[in-house]
Specification:
Length: 260
């Protein structure tokens, strides 16, 4: 017999991928199906609509992440709760804050973190193979990280010539962070370095632009908070079949070892 204090519920923090059902993992679908309560923000819940029938759905708004984490933990003492988060919940998502609150409140509950396809992988897959080797991921959102820290990180990663994926590249509150990041990139990389702007990957209004570091300023209006930008590294190049631009390749190094 479990003691009365023992939790009867559970909490799953579920990464639901970039935006289409096809890109969700089998485990994510199974965990959501098995949950009694689903908690998340509107965009993600809308994506899941048919899976939510008969469940208690709690809609939370952006910017209320700490409150959402506390609610989910409280409910998961008694019920099976799935907290959904876009892409991977551990990449600029809800997993971290939930773990921090659990630690702070000293609560032990059965917990599962379900990985999902993050925007970097989703965007890369739409434009060839730009992230074939080492790469870095930087968020340009200065809501939780000071801008001077972000700039320092950008200087570091661009200076070593690896591809860089920019999350949260632009929003109304911080329209200049993106142009600032491009200026830093141009200190270290040539103007021919390929750049991919991928908006709403795997959603119905997906938009893809392949350009270069020298030309990206002519595409600034395509960059917003639904966009992931991939800036190639020193070895990245445009991938062409005949005359057609197909995407971006960052060679992994096979050409140094094999003849093909
Ligand atoms: N946890 C999410 C990231 C949340 S931060 C993940 O793992 O993907 C939000 C940022 O993610 C957006 O500003 C954008 O840069 C990126 N993003 C999320 N979904 C995207 C999509 N479908 N297409 C392009 N970028 C996306």
């Amino acid at each position: 017999m479990p003691s009365p204090a023992e939790p009867k519920g559970s909490l799953a923090i579920v990464g639901i991928g970039p935006g289409s059902r096809d890109q969700m993992t089998a485990r994510a679908l199974k965990v959501i199906a098995g949950s009694e309560i689903v908690i998340g923000n509107d965009t993600y819940l809308d994506q899941l609509e048919p899976l939510l029938m008969g469940k208690n759905v709690i809609r939370s708004s952006m910017g209320k992440e700490v409150e959402r984490a506390k609610t989910a933990i409280k409910l998961s003492l008694k019920r099976h709760v799935a907290m959904v988060s876009g892409g991977d919940a551990g990449v600029y998502g809800m997993a971290g804050i939930v773990l921090e609150v659990l630690e702070h409140e000293n609560v032990t509950i059965p917990l599962e973190i379900v990985p999902g396809v993050t925007a970097a992988n989703a965007a890369a897959s739409r434009v060839g193979s730009p992230l074939s080797g080492d790469f870095a991921v930087i968020s340009l959102s200065d809501l939780l990280t000071p801008l001077n820290v972000i700039e320092k990180r950008l200087e570091s990663v661009f200076s070593i010539g690896i591809p860089v994926v920019l999350y949260n590249p632009k929003s109304r509150g911080r329209p200049h962070n993106f142009s600032g990041a491009i200026s830093i990139a141009r200190k270290y990389l040539s103007d021919t370095t390929p750049v991919a702007i991928v908006r709403n990957a795997y959603r119905h209004d997906e938009g893809i632009t392949i350009t270069t570091l020298g030309d990206v300023e002519n595409h600034y209006e395509k960059v917003d908070m639904h966009t992931t930008v991939i800036i190639g590294g020193a070895e990245s190049r445009i991938w062409r079949i005949g005359q057609d631009v197909k995407g971006i390749i960052t060679p992994r190094g096979y050409h140094r070892k094999y003849v093909y």
